[in-house]
Amino acid sequence: MSATILDGRRIAAEIRAEVGVQVHALRQSGHQPRLAVVLVGDNAASAVYVRGKVKACAELGIASEQVLPRADIRTAELHRIIAGLNANPAVDGILVQLPLPAHIDAREILVAVDPDKDVDGFHPLNVGNLVAGRPGPRPCTPAGIIELLRRHRIAMEGQEAVVVGRSDIVGKPMALLLLQENATVTIAHSRTRDLAAVCRRADILVAAVGRPGFLGRDAIRTGAVVVDVGMNRLTDPTAMERFYPGDEQRRAAFARNGSTLIGDVDPVAAMELAAAFTPVPGGVGPLTIAMLMANTVAAAQRHVSRSKPTP
Ligand code: NDP
User: Fold this and answer.
1) What pTM does this model have?
2) How far, in Å, from the CA of 307 to the mean position of ligand 1?
3) Which residues are annotated as catalytic?
4) Binding site membership of 94 for ligand 1 (Cβ less than 6 Å)
5) Local mean pLDDT, 10-residue blocks, the chain (311 residues)
6) Distance 231 CA to ligand 1 centre (A)
7) 233 and 159 within one domain
8) Do the domain assignments include residue 277?
9) Does ligand 1 lie within 6 Å of residue 232's CB atom?
10) CATH code of the domain containing 196
11) Angle 150-233-101 from CA coordinates, rounded to 5°
């Protein structure tokens, strides 16, 4: 058996094309959607993510602005910046790139963002909306995974879904969204007893752990749909050979860069046992930015319809 590849790049392009049409309509009506990205300090990985987001905005005709405070900014000052963006009617979406420096309480800052401009869906009010099944922005990565499954016509209703990882950003919202799709959901984490046995129950297995190739053959049920959220840098050449035997392209890139990007699932085991699998890269990753664009445009649409005079 060889798993069908779930092509995140293709689905992300589809979503972006749909968002592009919505942006066009908004601009015709006189409003250009606008995203403000706050990037504190000089975390190299965060800077790469932010560049990707700003580039996606430009490609879709969404205006973007970057606010780049120094790493030693005080919490009160960051609050003032967020308050300014909240009050600015031209700004539809606000994104605070995580992680924030250790001296800043990230939770406090996320609460400061106007829930109506919270395009990441991290504000507690929007978390509550998600839990209650009320409308509101959904966290981008899990929302993108639901789109990926839907658009590949993978049934979720009545299926056993196991989500490994319980972070506020991926694991928890993923579990809630699968529940909303009427899956029977289990959340596993570092204290789960006999993790592999729990994972083997899954018709849909979502790995969001942050450990290279962590879930192996013993965790994958034959015929399962395996969604690999992990993005880890693998630097061990022996592990590289074990996870990607015969992959000349990857081997060459590894020789050039000294590392390769790998998910949380052993790709050899997934390709052999799963019915469908998201590759890394090119699976879940591209969907995150596509959904951020979708959330930004949805916020802009809300703002425009609210500012229309009532007849
Ligand atoms: P976190 O570190 O916040 O959470 C990791 C989760 O994995 C925790 O709940 C932890 O459990 C669990 N875990 C850790 N070790 C084990 C173990 N041995 N057995 C079972 N569970 C374990 O990570 P994130 O959720 O933020 O991210 C997860 C992965 O997804 C990372 O690789 C990240 O880079 C990637 N990611 C990818 C995105 C994309 O766009 N593709 C977007 C966001 C993240 P516990 O709570 O008990 O500690």
Assistant:
1) 0.97
2) 40
3) 53, 97, 120
4) no
5) 94 98 97 98 94 97 97 97 98 97 95 98 98 97 98 98 98 98 98 98 98 98 98 96 96 96 98 98 97 98 86 67
6) 10
7) yes
8) yes
9) yes
10) 3.40.50.720
11) 90
